[in-house]
């Protein structure tokens, strides 16, 4: 990537930081000079990532956090502020996929698991992050929705519903806080080369083939391409951008 950002002296928080888009974004924030709070349920992965970022000259704080647990989310934000004194930027990336099934065959426990992480988790992260940013009078939050937040899809109604909900939360929070120096936006990634998508390609080959037909660019997106969009939305270059669900999808949503 050729785009460069300067976040020296800023504090960024990334959930779901140990793989895929979260990992790429944590690395990008660190490269841009930010102090980075990396959060995930993978304790060993967090230690490895924090060591990697520190070895590259960044300051990193690993925090084990299940975003479906509001108390853990509150503690995560508290730890970030205690360690670095502020919270300037956050990328709420943690998410999971449901078991693919037609609506009539979907199970309540799978619905609750996906909604607890993908939707309640984003809401919980935002409310604690916004409370801190409101004290500061500044901040930028980017939530991870999906092209699945913009369209419907077969056998993934739970996932698509959760990602539509993320956009509703994003737009509503943006309206609440635009006048308070805080910007809230979302990215809507297309089909990105991540461990989650690799698993889908192995287990749901026909469905993935159908998805790729809709991605006009003709390739998977790169996690780093999502990271660049997140950093731009957090930068001064996006100072007039509020409440947007930005498609970064190789023209998937153009269909």
TrEMBL record:
GO MF: glucose 1-dehydrogenase [NAD(P)+] activity
EC number: 1.1.1.47
SMART domains: PKS_KR
Pfam family, one: adh_short_C2
Keyword flag Calcium: no
Keyword Membrane: no
Keyword vocabulary terms for this entry: NAD, Oxidoreductase
Domain Ketoreductase: 10-180
InterPro entries found in the cross-reference section: KR_dom, NAD(P)-bd_dom_sf, SDR_fam
Family (UniProt): Belongs to the short-chain dehydrogenases/reductases (SDR) family.
Name of the protein described by the UniProt record: Glucose 1-dehydrogenase
Lineage start: Bacteria, Pseudomonadati, Pseudomonadota, Alphaproteobacteria, Sphingomonadales
